[in-house]
């Protein structure tokens, strides 16, 4: 049941990463459909778009919109305004369809939690950043080794967690 805020992607990697991979697939499909004039690829678009919605990734939905706007609007710069309007209308139709099928509730539910301040994901990420910065200050030259953030965090907080922040990951590793 999608309305119970079930997110897909953790079985493969991580929900947000799965969303990013799906955005790359959308971008490739659009590239081949628009720039290589392979119109049959448009039929494949709903699959990765639904996958992005099911991950519940806020960044995935934002990157999806940016990718679609970028690829559609920059095909012919002399028709930039018209293509931008068409891309925005396309996005609105996609969002309405996702909402009607209940997929968008996952993303909107997470976004609402983030904006209302009741989002454990955001609070945990803030903790990861603070912890990572402390560890970086303790050992700024040598770091703690690749992927050791998880172990260090686990030693202090009893839960092995990834930082969900590439900068913090690199700063504590090297």
Helix and strand layout, with pairings?
Blueprint: H1 15-34, H2 46-55, H3 58-73, H4 80-100, H5 104-116, H6 120-138, H7 148-157, H8 166-173
Helix pairs in contact: 1-2, 1-3, 3-4, 6-8
Describe this structure in words.
- The protein is mostly helical.
- It contains 8 helices and no strands.
- It has helices at 15-34, 46-55, 58-73, 80-100, 104-116, 120-138, 148-157, 166-173.
- Helix 1 packs parallel to helix 3 (58-73) and helix 6 packs parallel to helix 8.
- The protein is elongated.
- The model has no long low-confidence stretch (mean pLDDT 78).
Quick take:
This protein has 174 residues and is mainly alpha-helical.
Shape descriptor reads: elongated
N-to-C CA distance: 43 Å
Q: Order of SSEs, N→C?
A: HHHHHHHH
Biggest sheet overview: none
Give the number of DSSP strands.
Answer: 0
User: What is the SS-derived class?
Assistant: mainly alpha
* Overall average pLDDT: 78
Low-confidence stretches: none
The percent range for helix content is 55-70%
> Given the structure, what is the number of helices?
8
Give me the Rg, rounded: 19 Å
**Relative strand content:** under 5%
What keywords describe this structure?
mainly alpha, 174 residues, 8 helices
């Amino acid at each position: 049941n999608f309305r119970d805020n079930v997110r897909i992607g953790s079985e493969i990697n991580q929900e947000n990463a799965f969303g990013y991979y799906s955005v790359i697939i959308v971008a490739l499909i659009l590239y081949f459909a628009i720039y290589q004039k392979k119109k049959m690829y448009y039929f494949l678009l709903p699959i990765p778009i639904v996958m992005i919605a099911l991950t519940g990734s806020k960044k995935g939905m934002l990157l999806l919109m940016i990718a679609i706007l970028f690829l559609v609007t920059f095909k012919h710069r002399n028709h930039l305004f018209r293509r931008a309007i068409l891309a925005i209308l396309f996005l609105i139709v996609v969002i309405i369809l996702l909402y009607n099928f209940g997929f968008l509730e996952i993303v909107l539910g997470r976004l609402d939690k983030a904006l209302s301040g009741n989002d454990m994901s955001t609070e945990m990420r803030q903790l990861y950043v603070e912890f990572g910065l402390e560890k970086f200050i303790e050992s700024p030259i040598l770091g703690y080794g690749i992927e050791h953030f998880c172990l260090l965090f686990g030693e202090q907080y009893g839960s092995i967690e990834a930082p969900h922040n590439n900068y913090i990951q690199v700063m504590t590793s090297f």
